[in-house]
Design a protein that fits this description.
- Helices cover about 55% and strands about 5% of the residues.
- It has about 475 residues and is mainly alpha-helical.
- The strands form 3 sheets. Strands 1-2 form a two-stranded antiparallel ribbon. The chain has a two-stranded antiparallel sheet with strand order 3-4. Strands 5-6 form a two-stranded antiparallel ribbon.
- α1 runs parallel beside α2 and α18 (about 420-435) packs antiparallel against α21.
Length: about 475
């Protein structure tokens, strides 16, 4: 039963209380690669791209116009005011911002809820773990008016459709998504010698500068890796090539004036007026002038680079085989990546077949997200209390909000500190209290962990003073905290 437990917990998201023993764990995992649903029905419950970008665009227009300042929005005219229930004067601008921000938080909560419910109910949990892995690889942070609405859509629209495809296609989809373009300020990047840059430069007596944020993170985090052999000159060249990659109707500053009326608000748009003209040389390769196609060609070559193969192989091996990834497994993954032109399911099959991923001892400490999802799966839950995201924030892992383009850490040292464990103990008791003694941990533990359940954990649970306490002890046992 050991391999069945490993399949559920190390590869999947934790066994559900109603799951039976898996007779052929490796076959079960392979079947999920074809059973994966990139657009599950639960995504119908999240706000559409059109909904959120229309809200954003409307808010930006209203803000520029002073939220209805006087007749026609003239700055010198009297601000209209209203009163609240206590008769206090309310600034309509404050009211509008509060309403807009509240609406954004509601959209974010709906997206988190959908993501969690998919994870709780999926019969392809290995595939869903891979979705979470790649969403963290291409991390954005749901901070601010735009990103709180768009961060979840990056996962749903750019990551999910390509999890069972080629890395190249996922890379291009992510880098063109409005969440990534806005998060790293690419939408406002202007080529100094572009038509628009020259025009603005003449008017302001200085040329606008490049924004290198996205170019740097593409090379350092998304493809080659920090030791991938690139230079600052390569970053600058990629930044020049990507000028013109923007988001119709949502870009801020002077860039917002360049979009034609035919451009669809909230969609990727290549603005030739912003593009830095000329050929590029990057990592020793020459790229002819060619507008949008120039950056696409560079990204395609970056996706095929040996350093990218090594970087992605290392991250996958670390996630499934331990914080110090085995060199032999990294080598096999990198070789497979290069030999299949970045076919991701081929990498997943290497992981499934790798003996390094099937060792009996736990190889990973669960992140807060993994721990909570596995806990609710173990309890048989199919719903996700939206207040849990507040708990995830306390535990240091609010969904889609790592605070850094590097994403959340994937090593034990980041999650196993004393204060973090104390928080999990407190939350485990709250979860157990809500179960109303419906679950007997003495029976549940063997179903979840079989012969991997230690005698010490079994005795600890058996000695609990109540069913609720026994369940809380199970949720913070070594078996449950690790995978």
């Amino acid at each position: 039963m050991t391999r069945s437990v490993i399949a559920h917990n190390r590869f999947g998201l934790g066994a559900r209380s109603d799951d039976g023993r898996i007779n052929d764990p490796q076959r079960w995992l392979r079947q999920q690669l074809s059973a994966y649903d990139p657009v599950p029905a639960l995504l119908d419950t999240v706000p559409s791209r059109r909904t959120v970008v229309d809200e954003l665009a409307d808010f930006y227009v209203r803000r520029r116009n002073g939220f209805g300042r006087g007749q026609g929005g003239n700055r010198g005219e009297q601000e209209p005011t209203s009163t609240d229930m206590d008769g206090e004067t309310v600034d309509p601008r404050t009211t509008a911002r509060r309403s807009f921000n509240r609406q954004g938080r509601q959209h974010y909560a709906a997206m988190v809820d959908a993501r969690a419910r998919i994870a709780l109910t999926s019969r392809a949990p290995f595939a869903e773990r891979l979705v979470h892995f790649w969403a963290n690889h291409f991390a954005v942070s749901a901070n601010g008016a735009a990103l709180v609405r768009l961060a979840g859509l990056l996962e749903f629209e750019a990551v999910r459709p390509h999890v069972m495809g080629r890395f190249r296609d996922m890379l291009l989809a992510v880098e063109r998504h409005p969440a990534m373009l806005l998060f790293l300020n690419q939408a406002r990047s202007i080529g100094p010698n572009s038509p628009f840059g020259r025009r603005v430069g003449r008017r302001r007596n200085r040329r606008p500068g490049l924004n290198e944020n996205l170019a740097r993170e593409i090379m350092e985090l998304h493809t080659l890796g920090v030791d991938g052999g690139y230079s600052q000159a390569d970053v600058t060249e990629l930044a020049r090539a990507m000028t013109g990659w923007t988001v119709a109707g949502l870009a801020r500053g002077p860039v917002r004036r360049i979009f034609p009326t035919s451009a669809t608000v909230g969609q990727f748009y290549f603005a030739q007026q912003l593009h830095e003209p000329g050929p590029r040389t990057l990592l020793g390769r020459h790229y002819s002038a060619g507008g949008e196609a120039q950056a696409v060609a560079i990204l395609e070559d970056l996706s095929a680079h040996p350093s990218t193969a090594r970087h992605l192989a290392t991250k996958l091996a670390r996630h499934f085989a331990g914080d110090t990834p085995p060199d032999a497994l990294v080598d096999r993954l990198a070789t497979t990546y290069r030999g299949t032109e970045g076919d991701l399911p081929s990498l997943y099959r290497v992981l499934i077949d790798a003996p390094e991923c099937w060792v009996d001892e736990p190889v990973k400490f669960k992140t807060p997200w993994e721990w909570i999802i596995s806990g609710f799966r173990a309890l048989g839950s199919r719903e996700f209390d939206r207040r849990i995201n507040g708990v995830l924030r306390q535990l240091g892992q609010p969904v889609w909000t790592p605070g850094s383009p590097a994403g959340f850490d994937d090593i034990a040292a980041s999650w196993s500190g004393a204060s973090a464990l104390t928080s999990r103990v407190e939350l485990a008791q709250r979860i157990a209290d809500r179960s109303r003694d419906r679950i007997d941990a003495r029976q549940l533990a063997p179903r979840l962990f079989g012969d991997m359940l230690s005698d010490r954990t079994a005795r600890t649970i058996a000695s609990a003073e109540s069913a609720g306490q026994g369940l809380a002890l199970l949720l913070v046992s070594p078996e449950f905290l690790r995978r």
